[in-house]
């Protein structure tokens, strides 16, 4: 039996199931925030300055904050992202050959192709209607499949086959001859709208496997979109719990498009977060500049746990594993935003939370990825530290972490907010 209170991880599983796309992740976060008394604000509306909880949403990104004191003078920001590598449905999706109906898709982010073969897949996303309104849709049943070529027809299948993203990763969804508009007609019907009124769509393939605990003692947790709904969910839980922060405003900022570089009008490289912070501090630049100088941000994203079958791929002096708590991610070249000041911020937060922690560094000859941390820290001119959970199978259709770690990450976020 599990040796820890699994209520947080159970709730993470529910959040993942409700959030197959960034748009659903924002909607579910908003639902939870409103249940806790937060109020949604439109960006074009006038915003109140009264104490309370508020949030705003832009294109799959969400920023939420809590004002606990009239005289607030600084921010504590927990940053994350809502998107995940997958396949995006092309604008004209209807295709097929040899008697099969297929859906044309485009690779979104760093997808390990083999993990998406021979899986039952769904489709989810948003439809933008003629009048500009947005309708979320999730076909929550098996719909698509990218079939693997039988080993009898590919004797080199176990010798490092490279798949062509254009010609060999197109999912099937039926038999017969496709016709123009068929797929969107189907999706519109699932959403309960008229296909003729669908003027735009952002639709993605969805891995259908249920989140699950693994192992003799259920000490492991597997799911799709651990990268990076673990962080969004942790920040959400911490923000709702952060009732005593004095003059510092706790903020959750979770961005879309991190997996493709953040260069959109709603991504981490946009002015979205900066605009929100400016509005909270008012028109006086001196007041805003002093608040930014007194503020700090924790950028949270998953990182690579040491892989038992590929230990040579990891930096030998830093070997994070599941179950040992969140890690601070350090890079001399600032692919992660963590210097000495930032390390101290992380350790103070972990100490306040009373949790264990680890350190992650890439090998010198394997540079690894990056996060929103360096981007947001540069955009805002704010002290920023990179943290995250160690996981295996990052970007796969099924990722793996320690079952206790998501709760420890939420504790770390609360430590940032309240100390």
Strand-residue proportion: 25-35%
Widest sheet, order of strands: 1-2-3-13-4-14-18-16-17
The strand count comes to: 20
What is the CATH architecture assignment of the largest domain? 3-Layer(aba) Sandwich
Our count of helices gives 9
Characterize the biggest β-sheet.
Answer: 9 strands, mixed
The global form is globular
CATH domain fold name of the largest domain? Aminopeptidase
InterPro entries: Peptidase_M18, Peptidase_M18_dom2
EC number: 3.4.11.-
Enzyme class: hydrolase
Pfam family, one: Peptidase_M18
Question: Can you give keywords for this protein?
Answer:
single chain; 419 residues; alpha/beta; Aminopeptidase; Aminopeptidase i, Domain 2; 2 domains; 9-stranded mixed beta sheet; 5-stranded mixed beta sheet; globular
Structure, described:
With 419 residues, the protein is of the alpha/beta class. It has 2 domains: 7-84 and 224-418, Zn peptidases (Aminopeptidase, 3-Layer(aba) Sandwich); 86-207, Aminopeptidase i, Domain 2, CATH 2.30.250.10. Helix content is 25%, strand content 29%. A hairpin with a 2-residue loop joins strand 5 and strand 6. The longest helix is centred in the middle third of the chain and has 16 residues, at 226-241. The protein is globular, with a radius of gyration of 22 Å. The model has no long low-confidence stretch (mean pLDDT 94). It comes from Glycomyces algeriensis. Its cofactor is Zn(2+). Pfam families: Peptidase_M18.
């Amino acid at each position: 039996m599990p040796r820890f209170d699994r209520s947080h991880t159970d709730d993470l599983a529910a959040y993942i199931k409700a959030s197959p796309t960034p748009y659903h992740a924002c909607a579910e976060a908003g639902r939870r925030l409103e249940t806790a008394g937060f109020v949604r604000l439109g960006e074009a509306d006038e915003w109140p300055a009264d104490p309370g909880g508020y949030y705003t949403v832009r294109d799959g990104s969400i920023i939420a904050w809590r004002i606990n004191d009239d005289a607030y003078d600084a921010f504590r920001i927990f940053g994350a992202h809502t998107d995940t590598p997958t396949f995006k449905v092309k604008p004209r999706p209807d295709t097929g050959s040899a008697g099969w109906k297929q859906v044309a898709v485009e690779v979104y982010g760093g997808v390990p192709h083999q993990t998406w073969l021979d899986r039952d897949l769904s489709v989810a996303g948003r439809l933008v209607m003629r009048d500009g309104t947005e309708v979320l849709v999730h076909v929550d049943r098996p719909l698509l499949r990218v079939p693997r070529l039988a080993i009898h027809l590919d004797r080199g299948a176990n010798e490092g086959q490279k798949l062509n993203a254009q010609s060999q990763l197109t999912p099937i969804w039926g038999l017969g001859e496709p016709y123009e508009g068929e797929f969107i007609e189907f999706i519109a019907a699932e959403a309960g709208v008229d296909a003729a009124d669908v003027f735009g769509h952002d639709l993605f393939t969805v891995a259908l496997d249920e989140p699950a605990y693994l192992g003799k003692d259920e000490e492991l947790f597997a799911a799709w979109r651990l990268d990076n709904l673990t962080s969004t969910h942790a920040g959400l839980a911490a923000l709702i719990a952060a009732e005593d922060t004095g003059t510092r405003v706790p903020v959750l900022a979770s961005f879309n498009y991190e997996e493709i570089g953040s260069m959109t009008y709603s991504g981490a490289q946009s002015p979205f977060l900066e605009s929100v912070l400016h509005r909270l501090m008012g028109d006086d630049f001196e007041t805003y500049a002093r608040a930014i100088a007194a503020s700090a941000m924790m950028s949270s994203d998953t990182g690579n746990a040491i892989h038992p079958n590929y230990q040579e791929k990891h930096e030998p002096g830093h070997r994070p594993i599941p179950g040992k708590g969140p890690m601070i991610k350090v890079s001399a070249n600032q692919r992660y935003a963590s210097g000495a000041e930032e390390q101290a911020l992380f350790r103070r937060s972990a100490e306040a939370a009373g949790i264990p922690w680890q350190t992650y560094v890439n090998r010198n000859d394997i540079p690894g990825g990056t996060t929103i941390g360096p981007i947001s820290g540069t955009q805002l001119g704010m002290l920023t530290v990179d943290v995250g959970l160690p996981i295996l199978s990052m970007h796969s259709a099924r990722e793996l972490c320690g079952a206790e770690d998501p709760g420890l990450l939420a504790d770390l976020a609360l430590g940032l907010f309240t100390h």
